[in-house]
Amino acid sequence: MGASLLIIDAMNLIRRIYAIQEKQNAKSEFALSATNNTACNALQKLLRAHTPSHVICVFDSHQASWRHQLLPEYKQSRKPIPSDLKAYLPHIQDAFYEMGIESLVTEQDEADDLIATLAHKVTARQQRCTIVSTDKGFYQLLNAYTSIYDYFQSLHMDSYYVEHKLNMKIDQLTDYWAITGISSSHIKGVEGVGNKGAMALLQEYSSLQRMFQAENNSDKRLLKVQQQQQEALLSKQLVSLKIDIQLGFNLKDLRYPKT
Fold first, then answer.
1. Labelling 118: which of 135, 232, 240, 250 has CA 20 to 30 A away?
2. Could you tell me which residues are beta bridge partners of residue 187?
3. Dist. CA 103–CA 136, nearest whole Å
4. Burial of 186 (0-12, 13-18, 19+ CB in 10 A)
């Protein structure tokens, strides 16, 4: 049995747990303590279910990233992390460390790009990788060695599942999002095309690049994509995850359990 890496999108997990605990506990310190306990229990369940040889929790830095430089309003309407939870995160990271699990956070990188880089490094060696997250943006990383696990739905997703669910190929996803945009992140995409239009265009032309090169003056949706080429390319850049971030550590540092 080869190496397998379990990557936990930590803020995705913790913020969902905290939202539940906040409703159930009137006092902030009780909600935070319960979040810590529930998150540690979730990790134990994940370790038992996936039996990884390596594991890491990846945290967001909460700083502006390269995407904000390209698009100042990027994720502007997203609810910021509650300040008491943000201040408490080191306690949760310490609890994870006590369990033998490292946490990764850097000042300038988004967790999504760190996770994508880790997944790419592992699967380039033809080793297995599971990303624990509810974020659909990770679908673009799915391949023969990478899968996604939704802890809250106990749902395991591979490329076959997602391609059938969305009715498009994994390598078409960033082109699709480049056209539709992602409203929750303030990524506009191509105005006036929509989800159905983007799907129809991809079925006919297969990629954004081919749409730019196509000659068909009767297809209004195609013309919109061509007229808004710069917007589409910017959106594609914003939705595409980086896979080449300098990490500064080796996979062996993430071995579980630590030897």
1. 232
2. 182
3. 22
4. middle
- CA-based diameter of the chain, in Å? 65
Q: Is 143 in contact with 161 (CB distance < 8 Å)?
A: no
Q: Is 211 within 8 Å of 225 (Cβ atoms)? A: yes
Rounded to whole angstroms, the Cα distance separating 173 from 209 reads 13
The pTM of the full predicted model, rounded to 2 decimals, is: 0.96
- In whole angstroms, give the CA distance from residue 240 to residue 192: 22
Which residues on neighbouring strands pair with residue 56, listed in sequence order?
Answer: 7, 102
pLDDT tens digits for range 187-220: 999 999 999 999 999 999 999 999 999 998 889 9
Neighbours of 156 (CB within 10 A): 13
Short-list 168, 190, 193, CA closest to 235: 190
Give the helix/strand (H/E) hosting 5: strand 4-9
Token pair 């390598």 is found at 171
Q: Which two tokens stand for residue 212?
A: 């730019």
Q: Which residue has the tokens 């994508």?
A: 116
Residues 6+ apart with CB under 8 A from 143: 123, 159, 170
